[in-house]
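TICKET: design request
STATUS: open
ATTACHED STRUCTURE:
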């Protein structure tokens, strides 16, 4: 199914990105759990309304623990109410290590199957990178999410329209049509970056590789971290009666709740949780943590398809750096220039890092492609 079938829309929220050094993770465990689980979860509202599941209380939420950092993407209000008091209580040096973005971010949700995950990353990020728009990209079980500064929302519309997406104003959504079209004047969108943007993906790859090499950012791999991509089950997906399905859904959510608490209290080496109010929870986590969720039917997804993370430590780069996701994806997916068969990959942006996930069988080739791009950068 081509990318033109994907439904793309902005989620109505204003977000903050929070960077927490791993050494300070224990101080922020309580606000993280408060962010996820309210004492009122599962209780009917005062007006007798149906209770809202803890998995659907946020328009968008991402909590990630990686070998580089703990990263949280949440509403501005939650960042202020839950995290700023903890930061204020820290000592001076520790306080300086935690950061909350001062500008608002908005998120674009990409629904529909479209191309394979790696090609989707490249197709979606290349027009934004060529327009000089800074982004964060998160691949999940059900959808892809692109975080952009709220001030760039108009630029995002223009860049995607020039790429061939049509903005349906009545639905506040984009519908991809001819994804082979390319803008010849992508640098004219909004305020251009300090240097002229690249004119094609190949040039963008070279610039990205050169930037990473200058900043001593090289791919890091811990082969002992073995990941699986999975998700909570959709209500009624079991095919049983309504009452038994609702009961099973409640039991699965309770097990998911308990499993997440067990994982987070133990400070996992790698875990990424994405919640929205329209889809079940999506998880990227270590294979060894699966047992904490109980029976296999709690989580959707193949538990045998092992992914290995390749991490790029971006703490030395400005937050507004552009082209990183697209440049990295281009090295792996390829641009039709005889670089070999495209690799399956997914991507996780966190506040200060980027992580590429590839299958175990593709790891050696992926590392060679990423390191080869840097060694060949001018």
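STATUS: resolved
RESOLUTION: sequence designed for all positions
ATTACHED SEQUENCE:
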């Amino acid at each position: 199914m081509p990318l033109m079938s994907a439904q793309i829309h902005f989620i109505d929220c204003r977000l903050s990105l929070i960077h927490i050094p791993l050494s300070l993770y224990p101080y922020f465990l309580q606000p993280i759990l408060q962010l996820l689980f309210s004492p009122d979860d599962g209780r009917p509202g005062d007006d007798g309304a149906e209770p809202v599941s803890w998995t659907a209380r946020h328009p968008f939420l991402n909590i990630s623990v990686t070998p580089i950092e703990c990263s949280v993407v949440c509403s501005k209000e939650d960042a202020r109410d839950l995290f700023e008091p903890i930061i204020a209580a820290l000592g001076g040096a520790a306080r300086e290590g935690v950061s909350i973005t001062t500008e608002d971010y908005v998120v674009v949700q990409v629904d529909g199957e479209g191309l394979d995950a790696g090609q989707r990353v490249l197709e979606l990020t290349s027009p934004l990178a060529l327009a000089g728009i800074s982004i964060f990209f998160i691949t999940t079980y059900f959808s892809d999410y692109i975080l952009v500064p709220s001030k760039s929302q108009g630029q995002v519309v223009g860049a995607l329209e020039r790429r061939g997406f049509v903005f349906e104003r009545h639905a506040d959504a984009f519908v991809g049509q001819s994804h082979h079209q390319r803008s010849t004047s992508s640098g004219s969108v909004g305020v251009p970056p300090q240097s002229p943007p690249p004119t094609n993906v190949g040039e963008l790859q070279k610039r990205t590789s050169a930037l990473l090499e200058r900043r001593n950012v090289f791919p890091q791999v811990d082969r002992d971290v073995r990941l699986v991509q999975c998700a909570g089950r959709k209500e009624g997906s079991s095919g049983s009666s309504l009452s038994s399905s609702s009961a099973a859904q409640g039991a699965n959510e309770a097990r998911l709740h308990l499993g997440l608490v067990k994982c987070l209290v133990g400070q996992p080496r790698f875990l990424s949780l994405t919640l929205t109010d329209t889809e079940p929870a999506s998880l990227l986590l270590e294979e060894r943590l699966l047992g904490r969720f109980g029976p296999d039917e709690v989580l959707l997804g193949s538990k045998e398809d092992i992914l290995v993370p390749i991490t790029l430590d971006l703490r030395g780069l400005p937050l507004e750096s552009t082209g990183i996701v697209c440049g990295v994806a281009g090295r792996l997916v390829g641009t039709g220039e005889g670089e070999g068969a495209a690799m399956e990959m997914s991507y996780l942006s966190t506040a200060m890092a980027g992580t590429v996930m590839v299958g175990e069988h593709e790891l050696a080739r992926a590392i060679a492609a990423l390191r080869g791009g840097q060694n060949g950068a001018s």
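CLOSING REMARK: The two ends are 37 Å apart (CA to CA). DSSP finds nine helices and 17 strands in the chain.
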